Design the sequence.
């Protein structure tokens, strides 16, 4: 399944996901801090969706109350519910 998510409260404008059998096959951020989002994407590829949510949910960036990793967790939850 391919899924697109519009993050809120961060520099990234979109998160594109490809999920198969509850595993993250691909993750791509549009916008944001390119090096950081590339790193996050590389780390979650091949990871179980629930494991990624558990590790990323609640991470804060500069007191914003969210971050690109936290928004990825929200995107993964939304994809599971789609």
Sequence:
């Amino acid at each position: 399944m391919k899924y697109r998510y519009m993050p809120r409260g961060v520099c990234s404008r979109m998160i594109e996901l490809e999920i198969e059998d509850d595993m993250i096959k691909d993750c791509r951020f549009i916008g944001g801090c390119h090096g950081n989002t590339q790193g996050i994407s590389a780390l979650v590829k091949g990871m179980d969706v629930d494991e990624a949510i558990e590790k990323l949910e609640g991470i804060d960036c500069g007191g914003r109350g969210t971050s690109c990793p936290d928004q990825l967790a929200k995107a993964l939850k939304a994809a599971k519910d789609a």
Summary: The radius of gyration is 11 Å. The longest strand covers residues 12-20. The chain has three helices and three strands.
